Amino acid sequence: GQQLNQSPQSMFIQEGEDVSMNCTSSSIFNTWLWYKQDPGEGPVLLIALYKAGELTSNGRLTAQFGTTRKDSFLNISASIPSDVGIYFCAGQPSTSGTYKYIFGTGTRLKVLA
Amino acid sequence: GAGVSQTPSNKVTEKGKYVELRCDPISGHTALYWYRQSLGQGPEFLIYFQGTGAADDSGLPNDRFFAVRPEGSVSTLKIQRTERGDSAVYLCASSSLGGGVDTEAFFGQGTRLTVV
After folding, report:
1. How far apart are CA B29 and CA B23, in angstroms?
2. Collapsed DSSP state (helix, strand, coil) of residue B23
3. Are B34 and B99 in contact (CB under 8 A)?
């Protein structure tokens, strides 16, 4: 099935560092969602974005809906060990008649204390 | 309930057997989604319900897979003649407002299916 491209695939960072990741699509999306998934658990919603250019924060997390509507970005400031996990973007295509979400390939984050 | 609930959490079945996976969405949510997640991959869309009807089943891989939501709440994903390649985590999500534009999907913890 279709999946969005996420970059980087994985990253190791030191505790306290800032993290940036992005998600790109070849088509236009109406909605972008960012999730975090821990081992053995379902994805947990972090941030939702609804308009091109929108910038939304949730604590140390900030996400942006790209102006082209084909990409989105997630930043984590001052990372801590519990930020470890897999981060997924999900987009809702603008194609009429369906409201399914398409997921990215994931960014695996490991934080070194 | 407070969140999306999926049962069972784990299911081991023999190749060729029939399995049913259940999803209880968040109360009041009219949209329900099924996804499949293979190891190391992102969730892959299977099917999406608005109320009782399947609004988009374009992700079902073949006719061995079928899902129902007879009363617009609980949904069951059914897999016939299971194959080893069906082994994956099956995730269910629900959202409000009919799952239209500008809505958020909330996931359950998933059912890990292993076909031996």
Report:
1. 12
2. strand
3. no
Instruction: Report the residue from B42, B56, B110 with minimal CB separation from A100.
Output: B56
Radius of gyration of chain A (CA): 14
Cβ–Cβ < 8 Å for A95, A87: no
DSSP-based three-state secondary structure for B82:
coil
Answer whether A88 sits within 8 Å of B59, measured CB to CB.
no
Q: Tell me: the pLDDT tens digits for A65-74?
A: 999 999 999 9
Whether residue A73 contacts residue A19, with contact meaning beta carbons closer than 8 Å, is answered with no
CA distances from A49 to A29, A31, A44, A96, B50 (A): 10, 6, 15, 19, 22
Task: Please report, for residues A16, A109, B47, the alpha-carbon distance to residue B112 in angstroms, rounded to integers and kept in the order given.
Answer: 35, 23, 18
State the burial class of residue B57 (Cβ atoms within 10 Å of its Cβ: 0-12, 13-18, 19+): middle
Q: Would you give per-residue pLDDT tens digits along chain B (116 residues)? A: 589 999 999 999 999 999 999 999 999 898 999 999 999 899 999 999 988 999 899 999 999 999 999 999 999 999 999 999 999 999 999 988 654 555 788 999 999 999 99
Q: Hey, of A9, A99, A102, A105, which one would you mutate to test binding to chain B, going by the most B CBs within 10 A of its CB?
A: A99
Structure tokens at A74: 């997630």
